[in-house]
């Protein structure tokens, strides 16, 4: 153990110094030997470490976005080599190398925390064994051994025997109950954090090995925390529970305000953004402008949710600009009166006539045939009584075939019919 502690001495000394500084602050409030003073010192250490890791977290988000931009290329590789899994994996790795992306970038914050975790573990293990590590002297060592969190000593473990626990001033029941609850909460928070990443912030339209790795981590990490958690001191469990809660809250903020394109979180975000923009007629903050700018720049490469967002703005008389702002379109401005109220302009849509049924058409045809034909002559006097005119019978006789044209039956050609040729027997 001394060899391992010496390997991490470059980090154990700064970690112990930070804990002591926080303990001096909280000790003045809650008392130097209380569990609140030492527990809050560990929580404050986690918060300080995570604040320092924010640039790395931002880099992780950018790397994840770069992975998202490669989704169309990944889909092409999958379709091209769908029957050759080995060649598909080789082409995927080649694509990662050419673009400089890393599918394991989501593990970077965990890897960065590992040195601090081991340093805190050795500091708390030294407290349990009565060894001074870093800047923790004998007086602080004695104070830390007296500290209890909900009845469990700060340096106690789930696997400790009753004699060791009694030496720390507690009972084995209190230690195991507290450590079991903290292990369950630690594993549950880790599972929920990974699950919300997979269900809300992943483009489900494309299946990639990256998604399979994330899905595997969703189940592997909670099991690892549960298995190894029984060997962690209570102080380390406080550390991991705090960092898991921080990660969960940080990820919820990112998913809500900067979702992955094509994910369910993006659909919910664009719906909220559309509601706000249509109510106020503008975008707010650099974040919203950056989202709108990226959507406009995609052009025809927009996904379903982004097209729905742009179409919704157009229907509301707004137009998204390349710089991320939203302005009223020319058509909407022209369609407003002086007081600013919208006016509906434009020709109404032409409606198609309602199609009649067969029975209705037949009844209409029968009614048209039964209607008597009226004469269009200028006078009601018969033509044969007028001087200088011939009777109608003579007119019909002078023009043979005229009546045939006027009274052509349905189904026959108008005009004189050619006589049929005699059949040859």
List keywords for this structure.
mainly alpha; two-stranded antiparallel ribbon; two-stranded antiparallel sheet; 425 residues
Quick summary:
Helix content is 64%, strand content 2%. It is an all-alpha fold and 425 residues long.
**Helix fraction bin:** 55-70%
Q: What percent strand?
A: under 5%
What is the rounded Rg? 43 Å
Structural class: mainly alpha
Largest sheet, described in full? 2 strands, antiparallel
Strand order of the largest sheet: 1-2
Average pLDDT number? 76
Shape: elongated
Give the helices and strands as they follow along the chain. HHHHHHHHEEHHHHHHHEEHHHH
Task: Explain what the structure shows.
By secondary structure, this protein is an all-alpha fold. 64% of the residues lie in helices and 2% in strands. The protein contains 19 helices and four strands. The strands form two sheets. Strands 1-2 form a two-stranded antiparallel ribbon. Strands 3-4 form a two-stranded antiparallel sheet. It is elongated and about 115 Å long. The N and C termini lie far apart (124 Å). Residues 332-349 and 372-411 have low confidence and may be disordered.
Topology, pairings included?
Layout: H1 2-7, H2 9-30, H3 35-52, H4 54-69, H5 71-80, H6 85-99, H7 108-129, H8 138-146, E1 148-149, E2 152-153, H9 162-167, H10 172-200, H11 209-229, H12 234-257, H13 264-280, H14 285-298, H15 304-315, E3 318-320, E4 326-328, H16 330-334, H17 358-370, H18 392-398, H19 402-406
Helix pairs in contact: 2-3, 2-7, 3-12, 5-6, 7-12, 10-11, 10-12, 13-15
């Amino acid at each position: 153990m001394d060899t391992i502690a010496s390997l991490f001495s470059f980090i154990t000394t700064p970690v112990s110094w930070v804990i002591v500084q926080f303990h001096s602050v909280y000790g003045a409030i809650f008392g130097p030997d209380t569990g609140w003073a030492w527990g809050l010192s560990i929580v404050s250490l986690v918060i300080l470490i995570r604040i320092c890791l924010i640039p790395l977290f931002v880099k992780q988000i950018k790397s994840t976005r770069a992975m998202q931009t490669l989704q169309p290329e990944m889909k092409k590789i999958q379709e091209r080599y769908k029957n050759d899994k080995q060649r598909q994996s080789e082409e995927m790795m080649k694509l990662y190398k050419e673009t400089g992306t890393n599918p394991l970038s989501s593990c970077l914050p965990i890897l960065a925390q590992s040195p601090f975790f081991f340093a805190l573990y050795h500091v708390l293990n030294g407290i349990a064994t009565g060894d001074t590590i870093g800047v923790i002297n004998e007086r602080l060592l004695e104070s830390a051994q007296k500290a209890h969190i909900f009845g469990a000593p700060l340096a106690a473990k789930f696997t400790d025997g009753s004699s060791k626990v009694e030496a720390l001033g507690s009972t084995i029941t209190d230690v195991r109950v507290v450590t079991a609850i903290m292990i369950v909460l630690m594993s549950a928070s880790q599972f929920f954090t990974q699950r919300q990443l997979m269900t809300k912030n992943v483009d489900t339209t494309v299946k990639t090995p990256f998604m399979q790795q994330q899905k595997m981590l969703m189940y592997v990490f909670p099991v690892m925390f549960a298995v190894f958690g029984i060997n962690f001191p209570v102080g380390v469990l406080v550390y991991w529970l705090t960092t898991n809660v921080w990660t969960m809250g940080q990820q919820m903020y990112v998913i809500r305000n900067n979702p992955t394109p094509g994910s369910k979180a993006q659909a919910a975000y664009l719906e909220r953004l559309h509601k706000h923009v249509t109510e106020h007629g503008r975008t707010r903050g650099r974040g919203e402008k950056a989202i709108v700018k990226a959507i406009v720049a995609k052009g025809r490469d927009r996904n379903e949710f982004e097209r729905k967002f742009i179409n919704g703005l157009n229907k509301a008389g707004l137009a998204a600009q390349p710089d991320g702002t939203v302005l009223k379109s020319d058509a909407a401005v022209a369609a407003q009166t002086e007081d600013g109220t919208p006016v509906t302009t434009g020709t109404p849509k032409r409606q198609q006539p309602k199609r009649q049924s067969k029975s209705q058409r037949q009844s209409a045809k029968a009614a048209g045939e039964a209607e008597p034909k009226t004469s269009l002559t200028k006078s009601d006097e018969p033509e044969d009584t007028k001087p200088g005119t011939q009777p109608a019978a003579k007119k019909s006789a002078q023009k043979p075939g005229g009546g045939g044209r006027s009274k052509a039956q349905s189904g026959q050609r108008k005009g004189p019919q050619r006589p049929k040729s005699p059949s040859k027997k």
